[in-house]
Amino acid sequence: MGSGPLPRGWKKHIKSSLLHAISLATAALTIARSRSAIPSLHAELERATNEIALLKEELEIKDSRWSRLLSRRRPRYSSIQRMRILQLKAARGWSYEQAAQIFVVDEQTLKSWLRRVDEEGESALVQISEPVNKFPDFVRYLVRQLNSLCPTMGKARIAQVLARAGLHLGVTTVGRILRETEPIPEDLACKLVTKPRRVMAKYPGDLWHVDLTTVPTNAGFWVPWLPYALAQSWPFCWWVAIVVDHVSRGVVGIAVFRSSPTSGDMQTVIGRAIQRAGRFPKYIITDKGSQFWCAPWRRFCSERAIRPRFGAVGKHGSIAVVERFIRAMKQECVSRLLVRSAIPYCDAI
């Protein structure tokens, strides 16, 4: 599981070696994607395309502001930022012209950075974020950079790419490096009061997921601009509340509303679900919507010895159980109804 031999004098070319390894990993990943037969997921692709378009617009606005300044008045990139720019250029396969246009610098500036990339010492024009003086440190830094710039590459793929470059690492070695935690800075450690706790369900009825979603009628969602900007409500859509048990994946409760339900409405839904189940759940996981992020909801849970929990913000899969049910409901049931506007109003079933 060790590493293979490197050329003599490799320490003088650490930073340029990182750029070459990242370029090789990107090329290998592109070839692997072209040969794969994974079916496309239209919904996820549409959301990703929309997010990319918004990010491009955001970057264009910021870049246009910097481009109006004279080059001598623009703030200079730090030595670590210069190395990050060169790494990103290698990962994206940009030319000097493309990279210079994106980062609002001159092409000759980028070329001078690359010529002086292997300079050593504190006064070096280009530096990496952490010192790399020994072979194990170099390997660890390279593995982490590949995982950061090519997040879709697993530990096996990273080991294969490094093997092509003459650096032989075992898959378990790569996994151990990726699992290593960085030391927390002192200024950040003082802000961490408690460590996030993971809620584990031990038996059916122990943990419930609750979420809200909108289902459009035949009229569809109304346009979001004035004077036609209306709240999402009937006759343009229904609001559906879903309660799903984590262990059994069974639907404990469901309710349909003409407009966005209040915290009292959700308390009624949970109360009737408890009556049907014949027991109180130990945990209820929701998002931080206005129905759940309020004092009445906390008081409702406290009176019934229920511990409210919230899905991790920005963490994929934190409320995946109920989201997967909602997706199946919309794709397999609601999308097949011809007259969805005729669905009768109902409370918790």
Give an account of the 3D structure.
With 349 residues, the chain is an alpha/beta fold. It folds into 2 domains: 10-183, no CATH class; 207-342, Nucleotidyltransferase, domain 5 (2-Layer Sandwich). It is built from 12 helices and 5 strands. Strands 3-2-1-4-5 form a 5-stranded mixed sheet, with helices on both faces. The longest helix is centred in the N-terminal third of the chain and has 26 residues, at 42-67. The protein is elongated. The model is unreliable at 184-195 and 336-349 (pLDDT under 50).
Relevant terms:
349 residues, alpha/beta, Nucleotidyltransferase, domain 5, 2 domains, five-stranded mixed sheet, disordered C terminus
Q: Give the strand order, joined by hyphens, for the main sheet.
A: 3-2-1-4-5
Total individual domains: 2
Q: What is the 3D shape?
A: elongated
Oligomer: single chain
Low-confidence stretches: 184-195, 336-349
> Which class of secondary structure composition applies to the elements?
alpha/beta
Largest sheet: 5 strands, mixed
List the secondary-structure elements in sequence, H or E: HHHHHHHHHEEEHEHEH
If helices are DSSP runs of H or I spanning 4 or more residues, what is the number of helices? 12
Average pLDDT, all residues: 75
Backbone CA Rg:
27 Å
**Helix fraction bin:** 40-55%
Portion in strands:
5-15%
* Head-to-tail CA distance between termini: 58 Å
Number of strands: 5
